[in-house]
Amino acid sequence: MTQPPGSYPPPGPPPPGQQRGGPSGQEPAWEAWGQLPPSTWQQPVAPPPGMLGAAHKPGAVPLRPLALGDIYDAAFRIIRFNPQATVGAAVLVAAVAMTIPVLATAVLTWTVDLSLQQGTFDDGSALGLVGSLGSFGLGSILQQIGLILVSGMTAHVVAAAAIGRRLSLGEAWGATAGRRWRLLGLSLLLMLLLLALLGGYALSYVPLVLLSDSVGLIVVYAVLSGPLLLCFLPWFWIRCYYLPATAMMIEDLGIRGAIGRGFRLTRRQFWRTFGLALLTAMVAGGAGYVLSIPFAFGGQVVAVLVDPQYSVLVLILTQALATVVSSAFIAPFTTAVASLQYLDLRIRTEAYDVELMTQAGITAR
């Protein structure tokens, strides 16, 4: 029986007494499915009556409280079977952003001597180098802005995958309509709030330095306040920053409502959420570092071999490629995991799985 285009195959758990893979031992539809159907959306297909297992799974996500393995497995499945709206979106954003420093450095290379050789480096070369590095910084900022929007798209992709739907790139982008500026405003507000808190902490040292002649007092203050700051940063990350973007996208909340929603969802769930988020950040960071090593090493080698005038261009180009490649994995994976944690917390605290089953057309008997 062919699956309708645009939907994940229904799981159809076997009747009691049969193995999970059926008489032949084959994997269920999701595991065996290796071809991408057309992106045209259709309603998900519910399994036949009487075929509901203990954990309903109309799509990529088991509709029950999720363990670590469930979350990572679902994240990779969503990325694998919907690369256009996950990896494709991240690559598109990174590629467009990194075009800026590459083009700017290319223009400067052919108009200003960017050679780093001693004896040829003058004021013009210094200004050109500053312009090249500045363009890379601008591209990085634009990339981060774009990835914020990608995180909103990924939230919709994950929510759709949970009920067996596959969103195309255009559908995922369209789902964020009316919420994009709110999402950017949320990210800007949280960043400014964190910078203000860190700035306030740094300024708290000024009276001690000006009014106290004792270095010991400053050291004591640092020893007492430093651990408090280190405890506050993870708390702020999980309670105020980690989930509001997903909540805003899926529940169509305002900035204040999204922050409050994330705060409430992580109540009495902090350590579990923090542990999984920290592990995900470490995995993604390590993978991104490994992916960037060949480009960094290759860039250094090529920069030595080519004409010194083109060495800066080679370094910028290879760094841009490394950024695009690492973003292709880091951004979709981390945002998918965060969105899955949001679903998991709602399932645990609000029985959200019942609502998801209703949306998927599944009725428990």
UniProtKB/TrEMBL annotation:
Keyword annotations: Membrane, Transmembrane, Transmembrane helix
Membrane-spanning parts: 87-112, 141-163, 183-203, 215-238, 274-297, 309-338
UniProt region (Disordered), positions on chain: 1-53
Compositional bias (Pro residues): 1-17
UniProt protein name: Unannotated protein
Species for this entry: freshwater metagenome
